[in-house]
UniProtKB/TrEMBL annotation:
Pfam families: adh_short_C2 (PF13561)
GO biological process: monocarboxylic acid metabolic process
Organism of provenance: Pseudorhodoferax soli
Gene Ontology MF term list: oxidoreductase activity
Protein name: 3-oxoacyl-[acyl-carrier-protein] reductase
Family that this chain belongs to: Belongs to the short-chain dehydrogenases/reductases (SDR) family.
Length: 250
């Protein structure tokens, strides 16, 4: 199925590994030219090398999405390399779990900063290019945690804020033929998730609570990214797509 993504230019934040890396691969496989960006130079280079080795048109930019200068440089390098920008996937983010009374202020600031400020800065930098060509896609990676998880007040707040951000800017940018949507993954088996000390217990809990008899994998989320980036989703904006295997409650 042709999705109309050939030649499109996409930035995927936090794409050194996990969901971001798989989203970058999925877009590249559909013919998009992809900017892989992450704060980690090693994972950025590894993903770029893998995609280039498979014949895809990709560049890598190391950037901290919480810093306006880094984001400006990221956008400038994308446009310099590929001429414009069509698709932005705001994927960068991670949890630092703790109960509220034990959560350091620095951890709160870091989690909410990467997820929310990062999406704000990257979207603000990308939108003028999309406006100029009157076509764009912004896809924000939220989480099922937007409904609240114990021990994840910072992560849940940031991911819920991303949903509100999505809806607000969808109203602002619709007249420029820019769609803005969000995806809420459930439990996805990534390298980061498997490294958690309580991974086995979390996995067992999720399997018992999920209607579909398996956990998510990064490609499940990447396929949702492809759809929302495609011409086939051109009349969808301001929406939140849950990719959770059917699990919503705790």
């Amino acid at each position: 199925m042709k999705l109309g993504l050939e030649g499109k230019v996409a930035i995927v934040t936090g794409s050194g590994r996990g969901i971001g890396a798989e989203a970058a691969r999925a877009l590249a496989e559909e013919g998009a030219r992809v900017v892989v960006t992450d704060i980690d130079p090693e994972t950025t280079a590894a993903t770029v090398n893998q995609l280039r080795g498979d014949g895809h048109e990709v560049i890598g930019v190391v950037a901290d999405v919480t810093k306006a200068d880094d984001v400006a440089r990221l956008t400038e390098q994308a446009v310099s390399a590929f001429g414009t920008l069509h698709i932005l996937v705001n994927n960068a983010g991670f949890p630092k779990d703790n109960y509220l009374t034990k959560m350091p202020e620095a951890d709160w600031d870091l989690v909410t900063g990467v997820i929310l400020k990062g999406a704000y800065l990257c979207s603000k930098a990308a939108v003028p290019h999309m406006m100029a060509q009157r076509w764009g896609r912004i896809i924000n990676i939220s989480s099922r945690a937007h409904m609240g998880n114990p021990g994840q007040s910072s992560y849940s707040a940031a991911k819920a804020g991303l949903v509100g951000f999505t809806k607000a800017i969808s109203y602002e940018e619709g007249k420029f033929n820019i769609t803005v949507n969000a995806i809420a993954p459930g439990f996805v088996e990534t390298e980061l998730m498997r490294s958690l000390p309580a991974y086995d217990q979390i996995k067992e809990k999720w399997l018992k609570a999920t209607p579909l008899p398996r956990l998510g994998v990064p490609r499940d989320i990447a396929d949702a990214v492809l759809f929302l980036a495609s011409e086939r989703a051109g009349f969808i904006t301001g929406e939140l797509l849950h990719v959770t295997g059917g699990r919503y409650s705790n």
